[in-house]
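Q: Here's a chain of 384 amino acids. Please give me its 3D structure as C-alpha cells.
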Amino acid sequence: MSRFRILRLITWLPKGGIERKIVAVLPRLDRELFEPHICCLREPGPLAGELEKLGVPVHVVRFRSRWDPMALTRLLRMVRSLGVDLVHAHMYRANVPATVLGLLEPRLKVIGQYHNVDTWESAAQVRMDRWLARRRAANVCVSDAVRRDVISRLALDPARVRTIHNGVDLDEFRPASSHATQLALRRQLGLPLDARIVVMVARLVAQKNQSLLLRVAPEILAAVPTAHFVFVGGGPMEETLRSLAAEMGVARSVTFLGSRDDVADILRAADVSVLPSLKEGFSNTVLESMACGLPVVASDVGGNREAIDRGVNGYIVDVDRDASGRVTAVRAGQLARYLKRLLSDDALRAKMASAARRSAGQFDIGVMVGRVEALYREVLEGGE
C-alpha cells in the first residue's frame, strides 16, 4: 500500500503550545503509512528548522489574507505537485483556505482543528465557519469543552466533531529523580534552594491572568513565607507584571525566567504549578506539570477539569461568567486558599504529586498519535 501524503496547514511555527505539539506529533506518525509535510501561511518561524531536522519538510505559501486568490492558486498548485491526500489545518486562519482547497480539489480530504473556546473574532466569522465546517471530512477539538463550544456556536452535527486530547511526552516530562536533583536544578536556574516554588508556564498576555497570582501573592506569603513565584514565558505584559510585583511588595519573591527551552527542568525544580487563565482549550502546561509530578491549581476554563480531578491531583478554581458564558474573573480567594493548602502541607502535596504523574499517563503522546493516525485512516480509507 502506498503512503498517504499529509499536509498540516498553519499560520507559522513560533515556540507556542500548538506548534510544539505539531513538532511532537508529526515525526511520530507511522512513516510506512503517512508522509507528513507542513505549510506555513505567513513565515516559517523558529520551529521550522527543528521539524526539518526531524524529516518533516516545511513549505511556505504567503497569504496576504485568508482569501488571497493568488496565494490560494499557489497553494493548490503545491498540493497537486506533492500529491497531497489530506490537509489538516489549525485554527480559523488556516481552516478557511484549507476548506477552500477541498472545494477546488474534490478528491482532497480536509480536517479542521480547533484549539480554544470562543475563537471567532466576529459574527461574520462564525457564519462563514458554520458554512465551511460542514464541508470538511472532520473537525477536531483538543478537549470536550472545545468540542461543545464548536458544536454550539457552529450548529454542527456532533458526529462531525470529535475530541483528540493533547498528549505529553512522559519521557521528557518526568519528576525529579531525587530531592538532590531538584536542588541542583534550582541552583542552576538561580532559584532559592529552600523555597516552596509556585511555577506558572504561559505567555505573558492578559488571557493567561498572571496578574491574579501576583495580587494574591501577599496573602500566600503571609501564610507561607518561603513561597516563591516563578513565571516562565515571554510576552507584551512583562513590564506591567514586573511593576505589579513591585506594587504588591512581592518583587523579592518573584522570578521572571522569560521564554525557555528547558521547561521540563524548571517544572522539576518546582513544587506546585498554577494556571489561572481566563480562557484555555486544553492546556499543555497542565499536562506537562502533571507529568513532572506537580499538583496543578487551574481555573475552571476549557478542558482543565478533563485533566484535573479536584482534590486528587490538583484543584480546579471556580470562575465567574457573564450572560454569554464568557469568563469574567477567576475566584481570587479560592486560588489563594488552594495554594496555601498545598504549600503548607508536605504530605498532601506529595500525595497529589504522585496522583498527578499517574493521571498524566492517560495523555501519553503515543495515545494522541494513535488517535490522529486512526482519524486519518478513517477519513482516507472509509472517507466521505
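Q: Can you summarize the key feature?
A: The domain at 4-167+365-381 is CATH 3.40.50.2000 (Rossmann fold).
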